[in-house]
Amino acid sequence: MPRVPGLRSVYAKVGRLVYFGRMLDKIRLHAAGQLPADYVENLGKGFDGRCCHFLRVDYTALRDRTLAGGTDDELMAWCGEIGETWSDADREVWNGFMMKRGWRDSARSLLERRIKESGFEGKPIETMFDYIEFDEGRDPVASRAWET
Q1: N or C: where does the chain have the smaller number of CB atoms within 10 Å of the terminal CB?
Q2: 7 lies in a domain?
Q3: What single DSSP character describes residue 144?
Q4: How many domains, the chain?
Q5: Is 119 exposed, middle or buried (0-12, 13-18, 19+ CB in 10 A)?
Q6: What single DSSP character describes residue 73?
Q7: 81-132, pLDDT tens digit by residue?
Q8: Which domain holds residue 101?
């Protein structure tokens, strides 16, 4: 999948959480008719669903609130108001889980299948985040994206 204009890296943080900003981007791009069809099927599912579960917010409510307007930080604050607030330890666990998904866990076989289907054998892909980044034309290993 080529890079999608306006869709940020999975590693980009909002409120010190990875992935949240990307989910907001997908919501906004979909509403504008600019999200590629390959992404639409998983809106609110997969990593979106995991993120909403962590935040303790309903995806549909977050989608509606996002489309009503506001900055990423305002949307994160809204999630804290209707869902839960998160300690630094909570954020560390979330980020660690998400950044390591596919490495020595139940998602490994899916990751291996996607690597093969995409012809990415030989690339330094250890996690689903790495796969997504390579799939969209970014090299997270060269940029050490997990450190930003």
Answers
A1: C
A2: no
A3: T
A4: 1
A5: exposed
A6: H
A7: 998 888 999 999 999 999 999 999 999 999 999 999 999 999 999 999 999 9
A8: 13-147
